[in-house]
Amino acid sequence: DHRDLHSFPTRRSSDLQNEADATQAGWCKRETDRTTKSKDDTTQEVAKLKAKIAEIDADLAQLKTELKKITEDAKNTRAAADKATLQRNSERAEVVTSIVRYKDAQRLLKAAVGALKKVYKASKGGSALLQDDPPPNKVQYDRSDMGAGVIGILEIAIQDFFQLQGQTEASEKQAQKEYKEMMDTTQVQLAALSKDVEYKNQAKVNLEGDKMRRTSFLNMRLKELEALAKYLAQLEAQCVKTDPYEKRQARREKELAALKECLKALGAGD
Q1: How far apart are alpha carbons 40 and 32 in whole angstroms?
Q2: What is the pLDDT of residues 22-51, one digit of tens each?
Q3: Are 24 and 239 within 8 A, CB to CB?
Q4: How far is CA 208 from the centre of its chain?
Q5: Contacts 24+ apart (CB under 8 A), 217-223
Q6: Which long-range contacts (CB under 8 A, 24 or more apart) does 124-129 make?
Q7: pLDDT band at residue 259, thresholds of 50, 70 and 90?
Q8: At residue 132, does pLDDT exceed 70?
Q9: CA distances (Å), 122 to each of 46, 98, 115, 118, in order?
Q10: Which of 92, 114, 127, 129 is the most exposed place for a label (fewest CB within 10 A)?
Q11: How far is CA 81 from the centre of its chain?
C-alpha cells in the first residue's frame, strides 16, 4: 500500500513563520517587561541612594559647623582661664606685698610705742615725762597729756594696720577660693568640650565611611542603569513590530504582480 506523500498533512511555511513571529513577539514582550521593571527598580534605588547621600552631606556640614564652634569655645575658655590666672597671680603678689607692708608697719609702731613707754612713766593713771633736767624756774613741766596722746595715736595706727592685714588676708582667701572654683569649673567645661569633640569626630568618621560605601554602591547602580538603558534600546531595535506573515506575503505578491505587468507592458511596446 503505497500512500501518496502529498496525502500527509503538511504545514505551510506561512504557518511556521507566523509561529516564529509569535514566539519572537512573546520573548520580546517578556524580555522588555523584565528589563523595564529592572530599570525602574534600579532608578528608584538610585534616587534613594542620592537622597541618603545628600542627607549625609547635610549631617557632615552640621558636624563641621558644630566642631568649629566647640573648638572656638574651648579656645576662648582656655584664654579666659589663662587671663584669670595671670590676674590672680598679680593680685596675689600685690596682696603679699601689702601684708608684708602692714606687718612691718605694726612692728615699727610697736617698737615706737615700746620706746615711748620707756620715756614716759605711768603715774596716777596717766603718763609723766621723766625729768632728768628740771626747768631752771623749778616749775614741774607736766607732759602727761602729750605722752598719753602720742602713744594712743600709735596704738590706734597699730590696730588699723592689724585690721587691714586681717581684711586683706580674708579677701585673699576668698579670692583664691573663687579662683579655684572657677578653674575647677573650667576644667570640667574643657573636659566636656573635649569629649564632645571626640564623639563628633567619631560620628564624622562614621558618616564619611557610610557616604563612601553608598557612593560606591551608587556608581555601580548608575552603571547598571546605563547598561539596562542600552539593552532596552537594543530590544526596541530588535523587536520592531512588523505585519503578520500573510500581509507581508500578500504585499510581496502584489509588488511582484505589478512588476510583471510593467514588464509585460514594456514587452508589448516593443
Answers
A1: 12
A2: 677 788 889 899 999 999 999 999 999 999
A3: yes
A4: 13
A5: 217/49, 218/46, 218/49, 218/50, 218/53, 221/42, 221/45, 221/46, 221/49, 222/46
A6: 127/151
A7: confident
A8: no
A9: 110, 35, 14, 10
A10: 114
A11: 24
Long-range Cβ contacts of 162-169 (<8 Å, 24+ apart): 162/102, 162/106, 164/98, 164/102, 165/99, 165/102, 165/103, 165/106, 168/95, 168/98, 168/99, 168/102, 169/95, 169/99
Question: Which amino acid belongs to residue 159?
Answer: Q
Grid coordinates representing 21? 513571529
* All three cell numbers of 114: 615700746
**Backbone φ, ψ for residue 38 (5° rounding):** -60, -40
Would you say 142 and 177 are in contact if contact means Cβ atoms under 8 Å apart?
no
Greater model confidence, 12 or 155: 155
